[in-house]
Structure of DNA-directed RNA polymerase III subunit RPC9:
Amino acid sequence: MMTLKTKDTKKKFGLRNLATICYETLQYLEETPCKFQSKEKIVEFREAVKKFNLSNSECFMMANDPPTSPLHIQILVEDSEERLTEEQVSELLRIVEQTLLS
């Protein structure tokens, strides 16, 4: 009988932990630019940046942490100095602002 009580207690405690983690994650996301994003906006962003030949991981990083400066793009895009011109960086920032930050 004691074993059943222990298992039941662990299960309830585990569910409380899961609820806490979910709550804290949602609270964190509400304080980031992610609160403006939707599936449609991310799809729109992916379509708009196809011409830049960004990798999937680079696109995901931009969606998770939308760049707001050329330096931020340099951090997120591997070899950005060789792959992107200044005009392309400016256009990419404009696309991010219009799709992910609005």
About this structure: The radius of gyration is 20 Å. Residues 35-101 form one domain. The CA atoms of residues 66 and 96 lie 7 Å apart. The chain is about 70% helix and 0% strand.
